[in-house]
Amino acid sequence: MKRFIIIITILITLPSVAQQSITLDECFNLVAQNYPLAKQAQLFEDQNQIDSEVISNAKLPQISLDAQATYQSDVIEIPIPNANIESLNKDQYRATLSVNQLIYNGGATDAILNVKSAQTKTKQKQVDVNLYQLKQQINQLYFSILLSQETNLLLEAKQAQLQAKLKEVQSGIKYGVILPSSDKVLEAELLKLSQQFREVESNKTALIETLSSIIGQSLDNSTTFQNPLVNTAFGTEINRPELELFQFKREEIESNEALIAKQNSPKLLGFATGGYGNPGLNMLDNSFQPFYTVGIKLNWNVFDWNSNKKQRQSLAINKDIVDIETETFTLNTNIELNQQQKEINKIEGFIASDLEIINLRKDVLKSADSQFKNGVITSSAYITELTNLYEDENTLVKHKIQLQLAKANYNIIKGQ
User: Fold this and answer.
1) What count of Cα atoms within 13 Å lies in the side-chain half-sphere of residue 321?
2) Residue among 35, 24, 23 at smallest CA distance from 214
3) Cβ-proximal residues to 233 (8 Å cutoff; 6+ apart), any chain
């Protein structure tokens, strides 16, 4: 029974200890979902919904209630002898309920709604732009972590080779084939490797913690970061969210132009007022009485001293400013793409020469290994050649990671 419980416990906890794996694309998706700034997009939508409801209320009847009680020092009197007309009371009371209904305003209400919608789209796209700009930071962190992983693998390979060589040397010393103390050099090198392991692990931990905070996903040193195969398509069009943001800004300006064009349209309203007071509408009847009025009202600002025209001119300038921003952004992005393409070509050249250097280093190390076994060179000389090979292999790994990073950044710059 005890053994059965242990097996069940292991099966239950096994998924939780399974090694986590993550890709670069998953990091991009997670930052778009979990980064605090991402919440603003929905908030802008909610805000627009509320504001639109408030603006649309202008089409509904507007109801107001007024009540007042006054006392005045004098009242109107009719100077006709024997007219038997009672003077008004100096204390007067009135309560009214008024209803105003917008009949026509030239489509100004719909134009305001269009402006609010355009403003919301611009704000939401600005959020997209801000989130997109995090992608290069994610690239830098992700590929730095990959470099730490690859560096650790190289260190492990070097450690295994040194441990195997240490056993050979210790055996050679035992039988008098190799000079005493030759193993001390190898042991010292292994201790140095332990320090390098700790340094790589420490740097990787810091990088993972930073990436984890940005994407809102729990990651640790046990997480496997998949090495992506990044492909680039040179010469294609830029597809950055900033270009969409500039287009939304233009549309916002155009919606404001449409609103301004409707601001001077005539406004037609219907109204009705009902009330109860003393006096009522008949000022000669000094008693409480009900009353009402109904009618329509026209309001038309015929002349505004060219304010409307000047507002449209100002918006036209804003549109030119956005066009200049678009042109400047496109120019700078193309310059960045050109520089990044040259960086990719340069690193590819480095990798080709790295491979040649490593092949030569392997030949030299093979020769050094033979000389060391035959007592021609010391263990220090052998360590030197082994370290040279390791450094060159590390340089190759670094260049390969740098190439992937350069390609990934090229795609981000282009908006691919």
Assistant:
1) 8
2) 35
3) 416
Half-sphere exposure of 13 (CA within 13 A, CB side): 6
Is 102 in contact with 129 (CB distance < 8 Å)?
Answer: no
Tokens, residue 404: 């992937």
Residue 255 structure tokens: 């919606």
**In 150-285, where do the E strands start and end?**
224-225, 267-278
Instruction: Name which of 150, 98, 162 is nearest 294 in CA terms.
Output: 98
Q: Which amino acid type is present at position 374?
A: N
Separation CA 155–CA 192 (nearest Å): 11
Q: Measured between alpha carbons, how far is 57 from 77 in angstroms, rounded to an integer? A: 45
What are phi and psi for residue 368, nearest 5 degrees? -65, -35
Cβ neighbour number for residue 356 with a 10 Å cutoff = 9
CA distance 408 to 400: 12
Which class for 75: exposed (0-12), middle (13-18), buried (19 or more C-beta within 10 A)? middle
Altogether, the residues listed in the chain come to a count of 416
Closest to 221 in 3D by CA, of 236, 240, 200:
200
**CA dist list (Å): 188 to 94, 138, 200, 273, 379:** 103, 38, 19, 100, 11
List alpha helices for 57-80, DSSP H.
none
User: Is the C-alpha dihedral spanning 210, 215, 220, 222 positive or negative?
Assistant: negative
Give the pair of three-digit tokens for residue 80.
Answer: 């006709």
Phi and psi dihedrals of 219, rounded to 5? -130, 155
Cβ pair 333, 238 in contact under 8 A: yes
200-205 contacts at long range (C-beta below 8 A, 24 or more positions apart): 200/148, 200/151, 200/152, 200/155, 201/148, 201/152, 203/148, 204/145, 204/148, 204/149, 204/152
Could you tell me the mean pLDDT of each successive run of 10 residues in the chain, 416 residues long?
46 50 93 93 95 93 95 80 74 94 92 95 96 94 93 90 84 72 83 93 95 93 90 85 96 95 91 93 86 94 86 94 96 95 95 95 91 82 89 93 94 91
Angle between helices 241-263 and 307-373 (to 10 degrees): 170
pTM of the entire predicted model: 0.84
Do 399 and 354 form a contact (C-beta atoms < 8 A)? yes
Q: Give the dihedral sign, CA 70/76/77/78.
A: negative
Enclosing H/E stretch for 46: helix 39-56
Structure tokens that stand for 389 in this block: 């090979």
Cβ–Cβ < 8 Å for 104, 262 = no
